[in-house]
Structures are given as structure tokens and as C-alpha cells.
Design brief:
Structural class: mainly alpha
Shape: globular
Number of strands: 0
Largest sheet: none
Number of helices: 14
Amino acid sequence: MNIQKRLFELQDKEYADFQAKLTPNVPRERFIGVRVPVARKLAKEYIKDTEHTAFIKELPHKYYDEDMLNGLLISEIKDYDECISCLEEFLPYVDNWAVCDIMSPKCFKRNKDRLIGKIYEWTGSDKTYTCRFGMEMLMCHYLDDDFKREYLEIPAGILSEEYYVNMMTAWFFATALAKRWEETVPYIEKKRLSPWTHNKAIQKSCESYRITPEQKEYLRTLKIKG
């Protein structure tokens, strides 16, 4: 089956208009309009078919929806080495936050000892969405049982003028404050982040139900003014 043709069969033009507004850096003509739950179902269907292998390697894709499907397919790959190989080929072509954030490889949970090295590599990239993806994987997999205090230095050490990198840094620290308050709050107290990212992390924390009212009140006193 032609995957691009199948995506057009599932087209929702109103959804394409909506999605284009959320990702303004992607031209409207690149949107087909396949809803995410439909794309997820399609990925689970195609991962069982050898055709998905050829599709993943057909880079760059023409349409945003093809990129979304590619990211979802990579997330379904069970073999860690194969997954990493496909990611390394695909990440340079990721050009928006939605495709970046849709990727959450299931095999990473079983390979955290190997994954951390790749995270150091990805977060050190000068490519916006490779860096963002690395930080998101750090946030998803290393703030619970596999946490080490040194991991907080990874996002804290990223100096970027890219909005989507700094937004992920803020998101990371808001999540870290919720999960690892004692270890994380010194980064806010000592103003280790850029002023914009610092204040955005506080804002996100204050919007979170996982942060106590007392913690929120204290964080508000740490905002950088001006």
C-alpha cells in the first residue's frame, strides 16, 4: 500500500488548518490533516508490515503528516539499536515541535544505561529539535528511579536563543521541581537559567498541580524582574 495515498484517504482539512496554526514555522501546504489518534493506529498497523522500513528511510518526507507517522513508527520499534539508527537518520529532518514531541520510543525504558550517552550527545547538538528531543527524553526517563543529581546540569548547561529549546528547558525544570524539589530548587535560587527560561520554569511550576501551594508561593519570590 502507498502510505502517502493512505494518509490522504484519512485527510481532515479542518484539522490540517488547525494544526498549521499550532506549528507556524511549517508551510500550510505540507499539512494533509490526519488526526493524531488515527496516525497512532496507522503506525501500529504498519509496524507489523515490512513496508514501514522503506518508508522510514525515504527522507526527507514531503508532508508533515508523513513526519508524524515516521516518528510514531520509530516509537514502536522494539530493538534498541534499530530504533537509535532510525532516530539518527530522522532527527536532522525534524523541523517542528509537534513531530519532535510525538516521539517516545518504548524500547528506551529497557535501555536507560545505554540511552543516557545518546542524551548527552543529542542535547549537545546545535540542531534545535535534536537538542529538544534529548532534553525531553532526559525528562521522561531520568527524573524518577534513575535520577542522578548530575543530570540537572545537562539542561542547565544549554545556552540557546532558540524558543523551542528554551521552552523545553523550562518544561524540564518545572517537572524536575515537581519530582525532585530539594535537588532542583537551588538551580532557581542561584538563577542558573537565562532570565526568560527561569521565569517560564517558575510559571509552569505554578500552573502545576504537583507543586504545593507553599512551594508556588516561594517560587514566585524568585522571579527575575525587569
